[in-house]
Predict the 3D structure of the following.
Amino acid sequence: MVFLGGQVLPGNVGRAILGPLADQRAVDALNHSLGLDRPLLVQYWDWITNFIQGDMGMSYIFRAPVAPFVIDALGNSMKLALVAFVLVVPLGILGGIVAALNVNRPIDRIISLGGLSATVLPEFVTGIIFILIFGVWLDWLPIAAAWPANAGFFTQVYYLILPAMPLFLVLFGYIARMARSGMIDALDSDYTRTAVLKGLPWRTVIWRHVLRNALLPTITVIATQTGYLIGGLVVVETLFRYQGIGSLIFTAARGKDFPILEAGILTIGIVYSVATLVADILYSVLNPRIRLGTEQ
Amino acid sequence: MTDTSANALELHNLSVAYRVGGRNRAVLRDLSLTIHPGEAYGLVGESGCGKSTVALSVVRYLPRNGFITAGGISLAGQNVMKLDNEALRRMRAENVSMVYQDPGKALNPSIRIGRQLTEIFELRGISGQRAIDQTTAMLNRVRISDPVRVMQRYPHQLSGGMQQRVGIAMALANDPTMLILDEPTTGLDATVEAEVLDLIAKLRQELSASILFISHNLAVVSRMCDRVGVLYAGMLVEEGRTEDVFNNPRHPYTVALLRCLPRGGQRKDQIRLDTIPGFLPAPGARISGCAFADRCALADSRCHSELPPLHDLGGRLSRCHYHEKAQSLPRTTPGSITTSAVATSPEPVLRIAGLNKTYSSHGHALRAVNDVSLDLMPGQTLGLVGESGSGKTTLARLLLGLVSADAGGEIRLEGKPLASKLESRTAEQVKAMQIVFQNPDSALNRSHSIRHIMGRALRTLAGLKGSAQQKRLIDLVRSVRLTERHLSVKPRQLSGGLKQRVAIARAFAGDPRIVVCDEPTSALDVSVQAAILNLLADLQTKERVSYIFISHDLAVVRYLADQIAVLYLGRIMELGPSERVFSGPHHPYTEALLSAVPKLDETENVRVRLDGEIPSAINPPTGCVFHTRCPRKIGAVCEEQEPPLIDAEHGHKIRCHIPFEELARLQNKTDHIKEITA
């Protein structure tokens, strides 16, 4: 699997970089001094080899190496994503399980319908509502995510709860729905019937026989959403004035700071690929059919 | 708790309904039956009769929308209906077990076999090494020779037969008083089915459990059960000792059901099978008189208005006003053949010579079809038989051009060479060969009406448009005994048998020379199967079309086929005229296949059993590929040399080292043959 990931990764990286490269031709005309008039492939080669060696180039705007900006921003984004994740994954799965165990009862309807409605609301809408309620009206949480310097772990988490909330809403419905349908399939399956008819207590049936099979597809979905959580945060990060990779890319795009833009997008591409790889590995570890293949 | 002197299972006037579309639809109606301790009771009937609902009611595992509306169930003296959750769980843990169809799905895919068994022992307070020891013993008991290795495996790593053995081991692990077997061998190969049935029969002698055996296969039930109940529209219509019911039925439905089966070597050129007209009443339909009256040729006005009671005929029951004359039920389909068969021309319509197909699987060569040569005469049927994995379907696909053959072999259609790739064939050649699949659901586009599906087939295969197309369409639809009102509906509004008729009509749209029928009746009930077989036979006499007929049901193949090819690991082991292949002497493999099939008519019990499973085609055995399982192996020559396919007499070819006369001698003296395996 790891070897296969290694094979696939360069392909993904290339794809991630192609978008920005197309824009580069326009930049060419504007700015010859930065050595951008060399053949595209040569530039790409130089840039990609440097990138792999850890040199992400110089920012046009800040006149400083790109790497520290990107790494800082990525770290910040990961913190935010992690907070959102820690909140949404257990609650989403739990919601799905509860809904599945109470199929077509009011609690199921509330979770399914509520989750779905929350998913379709854009982050900037829910974000603003949350800022108004918790930040302005109730004044429970800070409205900007920038914590004071030297803030401890818990202070940082405290500052991140409000920005994490819109993300939570977007993902909750999605995860809950996947978990719910996985659970319903597993509950209706023949092997669950076998387990119940063995006379196992209901709790054992759920824990041992249903959950593992039910949550397999959900795991893949969650891992692919990691990419979204790291990369798709432009809106939320801008709204909460948070120095993550999304707002970095946004700023870079507005300032035509292509080295940062490229490095940022490539970084997101890598994070996305790694997340997908982790999901595949996890899936195959949990699923003996893929891990062992068919013998005989 | 449980009363050992009580009956194993009693159903008292049980009624079960499913709630569909806001209405309760009755599935079981006033069903009473009793299973005595140690008895094996068979429940038969066509799909939709409510057989499985009986099983699920007993273990209280009805689907969410199903519930018991009246009556009671008592299991070993316990009232199942009154149990609270904990008592119900204990009943399932201690008294009753169930084995069902599709063992691959019944086992948890992500838990090792060993763990799935030990948890049953843990429920009874046996844990750790003792549970593992008990599991090993249990797997030994179901004749799994290497339990320690099997326990380490996941279900998908076992074959279907092994999975079902594990399923049976799990069911027996709690030493139940009541064992429910719901179609336990449906979907398994005949040889595997025979093994599993043998196992159940042997275990019955070792254990005390009573058995409720549910199956649509009358022959299987007749082999396994002491008493049998015939279910129709959720009602018991006949009950009695198995041999009484099957040899001397006293309800028209049982009579009709038995007549649908091709039996005693009946052939298409001798007789048409009888069918049952009409359809089973839909679940929840209001039944005022006898449920079978609409389909019964004996029915009069009394039958339509007055529900017959279950008449007690001295140890057996029949729910028919006229039970004494049930067997005089007139045939629905005339048995005689209207058109006499025309003498066959000497030129084969299809000639295959030296056909090979090699797949590559993980870097290994897998020879799915190995040096197959045969001829198909116009207007004749070639039956392909063999276990799954024997290459039947691959051979059919090669002929159709769906997969291309290895270089070197030759296919000739009406004397002209046929390209192995479909794209290289002419439109005429493509039209000449059509296929009917096992599952008409996936073969027909569900979003189109029958008229659209047929019109399209006529346009592409026969090039017909406009009024000519409409005229031919009507003809075609009538020739498969559908009416014009079926044209406007969509496939899902038709029953399985009607859908298969549409699929057959579609295959005949371009006046094909050859139709490949891949298990066309396997998914159908026997009465529908009989109608489809009649239809195929009639179309053959009328259109002089040839069939390549693939089926695991040897009685069906025997009815329809003129020539039989028996395949094993992609090789033809035996080839010849149908009657010669069936009457013998046979290749030892054919002999084993034939004896594996439970038959209604025969009581002889000396059977040739096959050990183990079909070997992998990636690494086939040396010499004769069948030697690893052959009960008649004669020595080293079988392991070292592959025998040639020798013409023994009149085109009857056998691939075996044993001389034909010796095979004849061995097989005619069946009473001298000891059972080869244990």
Remarks:
- Residues 1-22, 24-37 of chain A have pLDDT under 50 and may be disordered.
- The radius of gyration of chain A is 23 Å.
- The CA atoms of residues 57 and 63 of chain A lie 10 Å apart.
- DSSP finds twelve helices and no strands in chain A.
